[in-house]
Amino acid sequence: MRVKIAYSGVNPSDVKRRAGTSNVLAFDRAIPNMDGSGIVDLVGPGVDVSWVGKRVWLHKTGWERPHGTGAEYAISAPNRAFELPQGTSMEIGAALGVPAMTAHRALFCAGPVTGKTVLVTGGAGLVGFYAIQLAKWAGAKVITTISSREKAELAQCAGADIIINYREENVIERVLLSTDRTGVDHIVDVDFGANLSDSVLMLANSGVIASYASMGTPKPILPFYELMRKNATLMPFLVYSMPENAITDAGAAVNAWLGAGTAQHNITKRFALEELADAHLAVEAVEIGKVVISVGGETVSI
């Protein structure tokens, strides 16, 4: 189906893909950006015509395809789009995609977290910020790590129960004290290899470590017997190649969470379409929060 784009969202993975640092771009020419929002204006054969006129938020639009959302129109398969709930702006719709889908998968890959204690490393990041909120929405207690006062304020805005500045505090001791020394049930981890030795010490018996990156140590050495003694589950995953049922579940849950009316978002910089290169440079500079590009804006129509 064809989507008239309102906003395009830029992620770190978009920047890495364009720069060729995460994988080799498979196309001579490509329109960047995975996430976006807009209105469906045309559908192809076999696609339900009821999609036409719907406001949608898009994810992994440019995955294994040359055409992303950084344009006036984008082509999307129905399983790469979700209807945007009433009351949620198009701008917010473009901020969801990769961060929200990743946060959901990292939280629920091994089942519900209701009543459990969840540790979110990097709680002020794009994924961490949403992971805290989704975990609280699901009924979990949330501990998170941050590295500055500014990031602590973001984690507090997201609703974290315990916020630990890892530059100033002993994270392991604080986590164990906060859990009666039993450890956390589930870890949403932004850097698996770099955090692994600490994660094992903080993990409860039969706990889960779900990780979506390992930039600090790309090829970590596993402490097998320590993990074995705790009956630990390791869940590394890539949001772009998640199973179809995981994609469906994530989109439905994110929409339900949005519908609850408590969602917070952190859009920090906005650019026009002709400033798309500047938007990528802003993300390259490790901008805290989501960067979006206004294409048709909130007034986009068909």
Short description:
This protein is an alpha/beta fold and 302 residues long.
Give short descriptive properties of this protein.
7-stranded mixed β-sheet, Quinone Oxidoreductase, Chain A, domain 1, alpha/beta, 6-stranded parallel β-sheet, Rossmann fold, 302 residues, 2 domains
Give me the secondary-structure topology:
Elements: E1 2-10, H1 12-19, E2 35-42, E3 55-58, E4 73-75, E5 81-83, H2 90-108, E6 117-121, H3 126-137, E7 141-146, H4 149-158, E8 162-165, H5 171-178, E9 184-189, H6 192-202, E10 203-211, H7 224-229, E11 233-236, H8 244-259, E12 267-272, H9 276-284, E13 290-294
Parallel strand pairs: 6-7, 6-9, 7-8, 9-10, 10-11, 12-13
Antiparallel strand pairs: 1-2, 1-4, 1-13, 2-3, 3-5
Helix pairs in contact: 2-3, 2-8
Overall description:
The chain has 302 residues and is an alpha/beta fold. The chain folds into two domains: 128 residues, Medium-chain alcohol dehydrogenases, catalytic domain (Quinone Oxidoreductase, Chain A, domain 1, Alpha-Beta Complex); 127 residues, Rossmann fold (3-Layer(aba) Sandwich). 33% of the residues lie in helices and 24% in strands. It has nine helices and 13 strands. The strands form two sheets. Strands 1, 2, 3, 4, 5, 12 and 13 form a seven-stranded mixed beta sheet that branches. The protein has a six-stranded parallel beta sheet with strand order 8-7-6-9-10-11, sandwiched between helices. β7, α4 and β8 form a beta-alpha-beta unit. α2 packs across α3. The longest helix is centred in the N-terminal third of the chain and has 19 residues. It starts with a strand and ends in an 8-residue tail after the last strand.
